[in-house]
Amino acid sequence: MSNFCAAPNCTIRSNESASPFFRFPRDTERCKQWVDNCHCKDLEDKTPDQLNRHYRLCVNHFEPSMICKASPYRTKLKDNATPTIFDLTSHLNNPQCRQRKRIKELSNAEARQMKERKKDSVDQSKTNKNYAEGQVDPETNDTTQLTSKEKEHREYLKSLFEVIVVLGKQNIPLNRHTKEVPESKCLTPSNFKALLEYRMNAGGDEALRKRFEMSAMNKECCTFTQQMQMMEVCESCIREELLQEVREVRFFSLVTDDVVEISGESHLPMFLRFLDQANCLREEFVGFLPFEGEDETLMERLLTEVTKKWGLNMDYCRGQAHFSSGVHSSKMKAIATKLTEMYPTAVYTPRSTCALNASLASGVALTGVQIVMSTFKKIESFFNEASSLQLELENAISIFYQGNEEKANDLKEACRTNWTVRHDAFEVAVDVLESLLLCMDSVHDNEDLRWSDQVTNDALEISEALADFEFVATLVVLKNTLSFTRAFGKNLQGPTMDVYFAANSLTAVLHSLNEVSDNIDVYHEFWFEEAVNLAAALEIPVKVPRLYLRKHHAESGTEIQPESYFKEHLTAPVVSHVINELNDLFSENHLNALRCLTLVPAVMGQLKFNTSEENNVEMYRNDLPNADTLPTELHCWRVKWKHRGKVTLPSTVHETLQLAEVKFFPNVLAFLRVLCNLPVLSLDVDGDASRKRFQMYLENTPDKHRSKSLAFLNIHYNARHDLDVMVDSYIKMYPENESHEQVCQPVD
């Protein structure tokens, strides 16, 4: 962010003056008004987001009536504040001076108006000086005079917050212990205190040094509890900046990830997907929700978090997507169903960041399926440890495919990617299973002592999972069942045109799966035979799972046949689950929304401009500025692109929204902005940065060392933060800590 005022002929710098500075608003209309009033050419080609991030105006350009003192410590603008005081003529008196800020040419009328305001500008400067000196604000009658002790105390708190933010964004725990431990029992200081001492010894923080020198020897500065409170304030302030962006654009979608363990407790990661003011589609992490209790309790807790704590209106929620596995799947399914009933426009969809087949398999609450999915995660983690392990697998593939070099090369290429999360993960797993088992056995034997004990133990664990018939049978059933949805799911994550055609191919996919269900005996016979042959090649005995035999053998009194067992407890439930899940994920409302992708010119052109979106937008009529004119506007939209001439048609929703002429079609613009919130549509290149950082945090941080607030700060590493706001929030939220003006408290 620039440290000088963006107004022409203004030389005020934030690092040389006590004058408050204000960011440009994110609201498009207000931001345009500010830019127009500035008459600065350099600002005209900037987006509202760029202006908000990098440009500011000082207080000298605002009328006194536009300024209020919302707190004793900060100067704020009113919601409708607009800068009106500018000096656009003084540079004319010195034409040889070099201007770094280009001034827009003024008409005679505009020049006269500026001169008339010059006198008011002088008066305004005097008024601002009085504010800085602590006189009474006529708007609020608040005194802004701070005592020297209060100023020192605030500087001290800012130093503490700055250290906490640095530690949090670097994912460094404030304390080496997960619970409060008196410093008298520690051999070395905590990370927080060590960084404070380093900061003081570096000589750059006099406020911090003075406070420590004044503290008594028997006092502990900033207790563990206060550190946690400050961490929560940091998280809250950064989240509020993000939520404010969402409120400004109104529409959003709610996205959750699989439940994670933090300090021994289950938490649900929550994301918000929205289109910001610059028409950039983003999916941002907003926090963890405790995931304990029954369905109704979880539902109430989620709505309370979103509406009351975050201040969002669920009536503006236009989509929801949830990824869950194992025992959590049923709870998340119940939450999704309830949300859809309460808010019909919150369409339930798959997640664009996860392959459809992986999502469908993870939601199957069968022991065998969950063993397969958890083993996939272990395999991915195992080969990420060292490149030499990948070479070991490729050598094993070469051994098993000596006579088919093309197939061997294809498998090697697939295994160099994150194949366990691909659309064809189960096909690759079946083809590579023999090589994978050979690789694991070789690593576990460790004849040449190349591998560490941890690696060999991991290899043994994976090998034992692979060498079980239940795993083999489950893998084969998943491969064959999900082969019907593989191309469909791949298209959903492809270009916009593929997504549109995928929506129209769902009927054929469901027809094929229903045929399998109706003839389950026939299909299961072929699939079971394939599993038996694969097990024979691996020398794995065909048998019923031991746990099932132990529970039911005595009750039945007869021998249980593996083929009948796996048909009843594996094949039939998996096929039924996939059919039901597809019907839930692709409701009529969802399909109608995807059919409206014909608003994208490239899709429209592929259909020879013979499209009709009017029948599919009924659910979103209230989101349109003028729904009555929609048919006429859609006709004009089609005609525009049909007679475009030699122009490349925009092929995505994002490209269409970037068009300058789309603003002349307000209904189309509004509908496209709502449509892109659907979680099934792919994000931009940088749109999922928050999710990637979230995954990195989970991979790099053991369960017992995880912290909700630390995770939030680390994931939002690039988020801007205001130390003054954090100090204000802390004083307001924890006034008991300020009753004696001292943060230091005696040690018990």
Task: Describe what this molecule looks like in 3D.
The chain has 748 residues and is α+β, with helices and mostly antiparallel strands. The protein is built from 30 helices and twelve strands. Strands 6, 7, 8, 9, 10 and 11 form a six-stranded mixed beta sheet that branches. The chain has a two-stranded antiparallel sheet with strand order 1-2. It has a two-stranded antiparallel sheet with strand order 3-4. The longest helix has 26 residues, at 224-249. It starts with 20 loop residues before the first strand and ends with a strand. The model is unreliable at 96-100, 117-143 and 740-748 (pLDDT under 50).
Short précis:
The chain is built from 30 helices and twelve strands. Residues 96-100, 117-143 and 740-748 have low confidence and may be disordered.
